[in-house]
């Protein structure tokens, strides 16, 4: 029998009492074995979506099937096929890494004879064998995240939810985690639903990206397609003197479509216009700038084009949900 | 397939015990503090034994019953704080994602508290024996006392779990602790009820179930086999355990609102 490890979401809504619509009628499809990056600023609705898809939060409206099971009516079946590492590694500082795995293998009904080999295999896979008997309270952020991932994999899930798995990690730990996630999708054919606020993470890791803002999906596609949709490069200018800002903005407007940005002046260049044309015009006008840069489209540009804000500027606070 | 209930309960109880054992700062006070208070009170209130009708000439033996309930109150707070921390850190959500049953979660947590309750009871009994207390009910009474301690631990442990599940905050549990302690102070902990002369205090001590919980232990230590005291104590402990378990199960189902 072919296993169905897809995620199908239709018009999913979550409203909180006296709060905003944290998730506002989203539709999405994640194909089996795909890494889907769910990108958005804090408070956009990413974590609320994950909590609903992992059965920890009932949806207010809409439907979602995870691994072929309905998250509303088939919670236990959904939980049997998913693994999840939710925001903040949820670990007990007084237990060791091995204690955590032992507990998880018991609760996940792994047969007794297989528990110990499975624990050792996972410790080895996430590189924690040497630290297995140390209390988790002494682990670094990266070690905690790796243990969190190992715990999510104990029962060999076919779908993995990772909620901002690399937030707060150093670049080395981040890269190590990316490699493991990529390997899981590539070799084990695990479907990965990954939320992130890091553009680079979505760009490097995800086969497809959904961008969420204010509870709605504003763009979806492969990172390449999304960037191609934006198409032309943009010019980013930092004025030397604040009083020149308006003058430079007017000048730049002649060469492309202005884009909202809090700190820099940004225009998406029109067809046939190059950086040199803008520099010449500024030179001729006698304006002085601190910095001028030509940038190929990034996912941040996609976010900017779709919402009028940068991802960094859109960060408004914490997400509306918590893993109760 | 769901993990067998016993495996789940065993795993969670093991974790609960392990946590307690690895936190001497929270495991030792329930042992030491009640005994320290007992020793101080025994010195300070020794003259009470000269009151006409006082049931024993050893205030230490009379007051030895109190640590059993004090220790249970400490355990309530510790159990509640631990569970609240699990909720705050997301560990509870991790457990919710496993096939663990709500009943196993609660039973595992409370089993851990019961084990601690029995350890505490053994410690208090040992201190009593070392300091010369002769248990009027004999070895069988001591065995019954351990059963009683386990029963009281179930009730207080479930109460702590209920508070944690409702508030989700360790700070709130600690804030409620003094309220629970008030019940101890307005009980017959330091004076037999029929010797309390102040009418309002006598009334409050008489309607306070903690008085009867203490008197049940006390009867086994200084009286022997007092059917009335035992029946009252066990009945109250059983009712407390049932009510607290119902409340905790309800709070758990609300907190574990997975689909």
Topology diagram in text:
The complex is a heterodimer of chains A (324) and B (259).
Chain A lengths: L6 E9 L5 E10 L4 E5 L6 H8 L7 E6 L2 E2 L4 H7 E4 L11 H11 L4 H14 L15 H12 L6 E5 L7 H17 L3 E6 L2 H7 L2 E6 L2 E6 L1 H8 L3 E6 L5 H9 L2 E4 L5 E5 L5 H11 L3 E7 L3 H9 L3 H4 L10
Parallel strand pairs in A: 3-8, 3-9, 6-7, 7-8
Antiparallel strand pairs in A: 1-2, 1-4, 4-5, 9-10, 11-13, 11-14, 12-13
Chain B lengths: L4 H17 L2 H4 L1 H16 L14 H5 L1 H25 L1 H6 L5 H29 L7 H30 L2 H16 L13 H9 L1 H15 L3 H29 L4
Summarize the structure.
In chain A, 36% of the residues lie in helices and 25% in strands. Chain A is an alpha/beta fold and 324 residues long.
Output the keywords.
heterodimer; A: alpha/beta; Rossmann fold; 2 domains; six-stranded mixed β-sheet; four-stranded antiparallel β-sheet; elongated; disordered C terminus; B: mainly alpha; 12 helices
What features would you describe in this structure?
- The complex is a heterodimer of chains A (324) and B (259).
- Chain A is an alpha/beta fold.
- Chain A has helices at residues 46-53, 75-81, 97-107, 112-125, 141-152, 171-187, 199-205, 223-230, 245-253, 275-285, 299-307, 311-314, and strands at 7-15, 21-30, 35-39, 61-66, 69-70, 82-85, 159-163, 191-196, 208-213, 216-221, 234-239, 256-259, 265-269, 289-295.
- In chain A, the strands form three sheets. Chain A has a six-stranded mixed sheet, with helices on both faces. A four-stranded antiparallel sheet of chain A has the order 2-1-4-5, with helices on one face. Chain A has a four-stranded antiparallel sheet with strand order 12-13-11-14, covered by helices on one side.
- In chain A, a hairpin with a 5-residue loop joins strand 1 and strand 2 (21-30).
- Chain A is elongated.
- Chain A starts with 6 loop residues before the first strand and ends in a 10-residue tail after the last helix.
- Chain B is mainly α.
- Chain B has twelve helices and no strands.
- Chain B has helices at 5-21, 24-27, 29-44, 59-63, 65-89, 91-96, 102-130, 138-167, 170-185, 199-207, 209-223, 227-255.
- Chain B starts with a helix and ends with a helix.
- Classes of the chains: A alpha/beta (324), B mainly alpha (259).
- At the A-B interface, helix 2 and helix 3 of A face helix 1, helix 5 and helix 6 of B.
